[in-house]
Records
---
Amino acid sequence: MKRGHQPRLMLPTVRSRLLAALLMLGMAGLIARAAYLQGMNKDFLQEKGESRYSRVLEMSAYRGMITDRHGEPLAISTPVESVCSSPQDLNATPEQLKELASLIGLDIEDLRKRLDSRPDGSRRDFVYLKRHLSPEVAAKVVELNITGVFLKREYRRFYPAGELTAHIVGFTDIDDKGQEGIELAFQDELAGSPGSRRVIKDRKGRIIEDMGGVRAPRSGKNIALSIDSKVQYLAYRELKRAIETHKAKAGGIVVLNAKTSEVVALVNLPTYNPNNRTRAGGGSARNKAVTDMFEPGSTLKPFTVAAALEAGEVKPETVFRTGPEPFSVGRWVIRDAHKEDALTVAQVIQKSSNVGSAKIALSLSPQTLWGMLSDAGFGAPTGSGFPGEVSGKLRPYRSWKPIEQATMSYGHGIAVSLLQLARAYTLFSAAGELKPVSLLRRDEPVAGKQVLSRDTALAVSRMLETVAKPGGTAPRAQVSGYRVAGKTGTAHKPDGRGYAKKRYLSTFVGYAPVSNPQYVVAVMLDEPSGGQYYGGAVAAPVFSRVMAEALRMANIPHDAPPNNVMSSTPLLQPKLQPKGDV
């Protein structure tokens, strides 16, 4: 080897060719992999790349507004800010975290738990730290300038009428989903659908560019209720006054449009404030007028009489012996609070005679009486569509015993809701036609079912008018300038297997003006304990005040002289000789 020459590495021909082949094969593999990744599997790579800087943020949809029949807002959504975090982008000092925790009302340890990794060790992409902040607090959170902490625009439900319409409108949860009432019943219509938008964030989690909407949010549909806010307030005020005066445990009132069966007002007491539900426990959030049942007492007597009139078994002037001896059905004895020797069918309603009602009921077949009660809507939903509405309790007639048929004629052994009871009375105010109840405003007439003949409905209506006159059980239901028809009810509350002696449900259901009925009003007081408990004494005055003001506000023409309200002193009735004693 010559001096100055470097030795050359000589490879055998086979080995050099093998090495070249391996290099070419590796290069081909890399080219194939690159082609696969950039051609066939590019979506995966693009997604992984964009995940480093791109985020898709949800855009909340505006929830539809709930209004009364005149457009007055009952539930609206207001924009609020919620503080959120992207833990994988979080960069905060301990002092910043302490200040943040203090601002949003969290313990520092609770804040750290929310920001911690998942059990598998991975970091969360998104977490709420505090929902629905006040504008002042939201501004202070922004001033902290913490990387990975940001605000999100949401909507919070606000109820302008507060406790006045709480049981009808209901409320939503923190995620703006309906939980009770109309908010729940029409969740899909009110909610709409959320949208989304894509943004670019820097390495500190700050949004540096908005790439535009991926999907626009769709606002929810507005819902117009049948409620009249003015009548609703009137009903609330008068029911509250009666409960306080008579020291009642609870109460309810329903006002229906007598022609359309729309719910004009519905109130339960006690109630709650849907804007602050800290005191909504103990069943106060339940719409008892729709979801609870009770025995209606003597308010059921008109339906017994209607069944007998419709069957041709009696006429309004038919006389029944109601005393002086008690009326026995098997080993059971039925008595009247005010004894009369004999009463006509019309007077059975006016005087609210249990004996007379029982005798009329027993003159009918069980199937006939059951058919009347069933056709009047008892034992079935009203059609309101309200969540949790009860059907009531109307047992099959084949299982009735004679005493059960007798007591059912005056409202024992049957259970109804206050809304059912109010709707049933539209049979007499609407000439025998029954329509489904609606909590939504009706812009078009709805066909009903003809349950009673017009003649029977008018005959019962004339009897109900005598109830509110001197000599009837509810002269305190009278309304100045208007003819009133209605019926009282005073029922002992069930207590185990029997009835409590000193616990009552006091009711009155009626309508006015009789010549052209506009409203049906049903009032119920639960366990009045202020010394009076008869429906004519505690519930009828509520009816009178609500009806008088509602008719005045609607500018309904008078159908009676202004001085038609007469003394409540009962008139003396002549003794009647029974004809065809039943």
Note: The chain has a mean pLDDT of 87.
---
Amino acid sequence: MTLLEQWAQTPAAKTLGWTLVHTLWQGAAIALALAAALWLLKSSRARYAAACATLLAVLAGFGLTFALLLPPAPLSGVTIRTPFFDPLAESYQTTHPAAWEGSAGKVADAVLPWLGPCWLLGIAVFHLRMLAGWRQARRLRDAGVCGAPAGWQRRLDGLRERIRLARPVALLESCLAETPVVIGHLRPVILTPIGLLAGMPAAQVEAILLHELAHVRRHDYLVNLLQACAESLLFYHPAAWWISGVIRQEREHCCDDFAAAVHPNRREYAEALVALEQSRCAASNAAPAASGGSLVKRVRRLIGPPHRPRLALTPALSLAVLTIAGVAVVAAWQAAPGGEATQPPLPAPYQRWLDEEVAFIIAPDERNAFRKLTGDAERDRFIEQFWERRDPTAGTPENEFRTEHYRRLGYADQRFLVPSGAAGRKTDRGRAYILWGPPDEIESHPAGVRYRRPPEQGGGWTETFPFEQWRYRWLEGVGADVILEFVDSTGTGDYRAVIDPLVKEVKPYAPGQFGGDVFYSTEPGARVAVEVMPDRRILVSAPIDFDAVEYLITGTVRSRDGRVEAVLERRVSLCRASPNQFGCLTQPLLQTYAQHRLSAGSYVFEVVVKDLSGPARKDYAINFRVN
């Protein structure tokens, strides 16, 4: 597997892809706001500030969106007891596809992770472009230059003192520059073409120099470099390029207004701009120059009556980008796996193979492809290729994977058969056995037991329902030392996988039963409780008091100074909402233990319980203290 393929499988890859998509409509909306602001603002300084703030807003939106979409990494402060339930939930998708309709489309899942590498490649290309422009500017500064006549350097110093510019500015003549240009930030230099100082009237030259000094006074060289960096990051966004163009245009207008305010004759300054345009080159954006921007518009601003600027097609372009991006986002989020509900039923043997024999190992795309086949010959060939793809020793007479799979099916049906009649392969223990084989260790209590809790679960003795704990030293794609817990809380022999270890206790947990200090949320309705145990570990109880198919519970423990001490994120379901789902909660209460002892001090625990398929959510905040 290549590094790019490894990257595409990380949460950050998909998050970055969604961020790039969301930035399209966000940037378009921000550009529309700027278009409205430019229609109202008349001052070039205000318009320039608005354009700069807009470009920063697009960048900030990018960073904020990425931070909000990136799944928080669980810290060491909170135990997530059963991270292996996500793969089991995926196996449930194959047997209950209707329950998973409305999830993100497969096309989006496949494409989004690869947007990030393309974006990084584009950034590299544009940074190389920016570096080439910077080197071109340095070449102008160092090659083919000579000092300007002493008289003109003194005039420049006089103009600099006149506008109260403390930094020294050198004046050089260049055989490469075709128009006056400012290069450098710490030690700025104004380059003028050879013959310009002698060939133009002195008053016009002073007006041009005032324009260049305005660039120095406003730190435009540095701002221009930062703007080029922003363009590189947002190179894929048309609205960003339009905003950047507005910034460059208004920057020149600001310098024009400054020079015209200091120079006694605005028309003479306008004539100087016209003279410069006659020798204008297709200059690089690496350095600000007096000839930048549209000459006609700049001269009209200087000598014509005030007028409201035209925005051309910019609002329409932004609106089009906003519409296209919005439709793409909605389509991606609303896309369903599709196709299965409308497919005709399969012949009984093939339906049995799909729903009973390979239900837990067939991938969703394989399942969809199989259902679309129209002939028995095609289906037989598909089944043959299905097992061939999984054969660890291709070319040998025996397919060890298929042999082991059917052995597990037979063992599960025989060993985990529920007295009520449910097939063993359809029980939670049967599914786990089929997926991962026999566990390395089993702790079984078939008649219940007086049970001593581990220290990380609060310690002490309790009475339990019949339960089993399966330990796997290693599960591929899950991790090391994985513990699955199954509880028979009904006494029928139907052991259900549980997320919360307290479920197996006959007496439900009540806050305070471990002798610790209990703190509650103050919001109306069901309350979240934090019990601070004597050893400074905490036990959190989060009730679920609204119906949903699946919940997302996110919790953060912060110290009073805002430092994050622990993060919890878990997707759970209630069995009453999804009675057939593997590992759902059997009671509307989620408990989680802290793994480490908190230092003495004050903390706040913030909890959000959300309905993953709807708008319902509850927010809780608990202030507590550890002595």
Note: The chain is about 45% helix and 15% strand.
---
Amino acid sequence: MLIKKNINHSKYFFWISILFIWILSTITDRIWWNLYSITPSWDQADYLNSALEHARALSFLGGDGGSDFSSLLDKSPKIPPLASIINGAVIAFSGDAPHQAAWSLSFWNGFLIFNIASWGLYLRGKIFGLFCVLISACSPFLFHLRTDYVLELPLISAITFYLFHLGRWSDKSIGGKWIQLIIATFACSFSLLIKQSSLLVIIPSLLFVFILSFKRDRKFRLQFLCLVLINILAVLPWFYHNWIMILSGTYRAVFESAAIEGDPSILGFKSIFWYFPYLDNQFGSIIFFSGLSGILFAFLTYIRSFRYQENLGDIFNKNNYKWTWIYFNLITSWTFTTFIPNKDERYIACTIPLIILLLALGITKWCDWLDTYFKFNSYVLLLIPFLGFFFSNSINKLNTSQKKLSKYYPVKEIISIIKSDQTTDKKETVIVVPSTPDINQHNVSYFGRMQGGNILGRQLGQSLLHIEPVLRSSNWIILAEGDQGSVSSNSLALDKAIRDSSLFIQVREFPREKEGSYTLWKRRSLNQNKFHNRFFELAKGMEQGPLGIKLIFDEIEIEHMLDGHFKYQSIVRDKALSKISLDPENVESLWSLSLLKILSNRPSEADIYLRNLEILLPNNPWPSAYRTIVNFASWNLWKASLIADRAHKRNPNYFLKSLGDTSALFRGAFWRLKSALNSVPNAINSLEEDLKTTEK
């Protein structure tokens, strides 16, 4: 009884210690956020915007509220929504200033610490768990993520949660229970709905368990099947709604960004060893080499004593599976990450919890040896992570943080001026020509929407075609003197056109810390944007096929920058519906409503209007072509191929033939592969010829 009581007290003390470490790390983080935090840059402001969007949509804050499920999914077109939903909930309590919103990072850090402590306790006991938590709290890389509003900290905490519980469930000696499966399934869904890069860990780990299932009983295989199916169902609504944007956005982020940034070829020597040099910086030299040396000495000791052993035991632990699980996932996730073309230090985040476990193991090996051979109080080694933190670049981050003229300068002041000029709570769009860490469209949007605001930032200037629309329709513009940031040379032409025109006046200049300044410009007399009238003409151009589509999206792309709130859409919709109520066969209005639904990612609703156009315009192949595309987008593959095939019989058309073959292939009609190999290239060639004719 006394022994049991002591064990309970010991565990109680362990979790109190873990809580204390989390509080200490949170205090350190808050010191940085309150004293040294700077204006959120591109990615950071984008993630803040996403959290704010979800908070408004779910009525955590004032705003949209009452949005339907599709409207909620609209707000996460490229990255899963779970982290933004949780971060938005925290913002509702903490406040929406960046340093207040960063309390969500403390939540994620606490979640990580709890899971890494649980994993450490499961592997080797309390001392090992304590070392795992101390390394997590004192890692310079994790400190950087706790003071940088990106998704890698939520990702790391979710992956730790997932790997720990999937490993426990799949461990034959203690696993296989349904409650373990439920937790592991939830953990997997949790990770998938935070960021796509979790697949770098989830795919190989599930493949490992799948192979393992052939050696297990029927119950285990049934549980594994349930895990996979439930996770597919969990991710399906978001993927189904946004799959086109997800695939195109992932391609741009992974492949196009790698090409633009000049990252090495994935098969090159430099690419394969790209992330190894970062390990020292991520954990600090003291932590990294203490852990690594302990692992190396343990390995050498094992090799030396191998000839004296009759049975092969685990190099670090008698339970083979626990550590085999860690080694396998570390090797596979590291390999998968290495072969992603786009390189960045924080992309190795998925491997961090596994490396923490190995480093903690190395340090505890030193503890074992010192205690065995020198009777040395090994608790002193608990100071290693603290020393590693104080002698790492984390302290340099605090010491070298530059003092701004004022907090969140100058974007906070710019938004304050625009808000004070508004006589009503109207929606406004600010054109941001430069793109720097201090001023970009993302942080202008975030500060513009804080505290219930409706000011959005949008960037124009990449093309000379932007000059005339900006001069015609923009009300507020931000320019830069000096470095323009990551923009094309065409931005200089737009900058000059604005300054040389007599349409705008300079409201205020904001000096920069080094050289140059930012300036805020306002239109002398506000101009009403009447794009809604032009929209009806553009929409009717859809009946010309690709020729009309190119013109539509060229103009709408610019308009969506000039009017980030899409105010024209409600006007167009009301006018079109009014005309249809008087004349159900009003072709112009049907085209306009179809296009609105396509732009709003409502393919099923677009199909209704396109069906009416198909009946009213029996000799025009394009309503049928668009119907095929929107049904393909909403995964109605049988309907898509049926529409295209019927339309092709009425109006033989290269585009309809290729759409019919493609839709049929995706629904499993593989016998049409030969036809598709002929029709698709012909359709592409014809489309290119038509577009060339238009350009001439």
Note: The beta strands are 428-432, 455-459, 476-481, 504-511, 517-523.
